[in-house]
UniProtKB/TrEMBL annotation:
InterPro entries: ClpP/crotonase-like_dom_sf (IPR029045), Enoyl-CoA_hydra/iso (IPR001753). It comes from the Eukaryota. This is Uncharacterized protein. It comes from Platanthera guangdongensis. Coiled coil: none annotated.
Length: 250
């Protein structure tokens, strides 16, 4: 499902195997477990100067929710329940990424569709391979409503309403060069190895800043108030901000 490696001060979380990395409950749980390890190990090592890269093996970064598992429920109500369950679990995963006390970089090495696109967009930076793969919101084509927290995430990260319209109302598949020109991703690279290498290089540069992780987490959440609320994260309290001030470099 996924592996977690650490090189220096950079954690690399990889969705493993040659499949399309559908986000089933088990896969989401495995990713969340890996992120919990990242959070624990970084805190144990001082809580500052770390970064995370998330990538995937094969042709897909992630092709979205596991619709086959949902359909195997049989009845319409069971299918709906399974879809809602995956949506709820992914909302918790997005909250985990928004709360991770370090910079996060998605190395999109293949197609990223629907929930898989949202997984990539939940990172602070997105690097994408340029020779193949696209970003795609398939919901309009397969007649599924888009969860409110998906919309909040896209409104927070994709500021051009025309680009958002293309994605969610037209179901346009957007390749890396176009995605970079439209501000959806940060950089396009030749192929999968180059994309991972660039993501790790960015992660190393950010880790070298030696920022305090909890301060980074707090500022990140402050820049994304709509999606922070949509995924159910509590508003930061005055006491929590005071605690962060006591840990400052002043």
């Amino acid at each position: 499902m996924c592996s977690l490696q650490k090189s220096g001060r950079v954690f690399v979380l990889t969705l493993t195997g040659d499949g399309d990395h559908r986000l089933s409950p088990d896969v989401i749980a495995a990713i969340r477990d890996a992120l919990a390890r990242v959070k624990y190990e970084s805190a144990a090592a001082g809580g500052r100067g770390f970064a995370l890269v998330t990538t995937a093996e094969g042709r897909f970064f992630s092709n979205g929710f596991d619709l086959a598992w949902a359909r195997s429920g049989g009845s319409a109500s069971a299918i709906r329940t399974r879809l809602e369950s995956m949506g709820s679990l992914l909302r918790q995963l997005v909250a985990d990424l928004l709360s991770l006390p370090m910079p996060t970089i998605a190395a999109v090495t293949g197609h990223a569709a629907a929930a898989g696109f949202m997984l990539a967009l939940s990172h602070d930076y997105v690097e994408m391979r340029g020779d193949r793969g696209f970003l795609y919101m398939s919901e309009i084509d397969i007649a599924l409503p888009i969860p409110p927290y998906f919309m909040a995430l896209m409104r927070s990260k994709i500021t051009d309403p025309k680009v958002l319209r293309e994605l969610v109302l037209e179901g346009k598949k957007i390749i890396a060069a176009e995605a970079m020109a439209k501000g959806i991703i940060d950089q396009a690279h030749g192929g999968a190895p180059e994309t991972v290498k660039a993501a790790v290089r960015r992660a190393e540069e950010l880790a070298e800043k030696n920022w305090i992780g909890e301060v980074y987490r707090s500022i990140r959440r402050g820049t994304l108030p709509e999606v922070t609320f949509a995924v159910g994260l509590p508003e930061e309290t005055d006491e929590e901000r005071q605690n962060l001030l006591s840990a400052s470099n002043l």
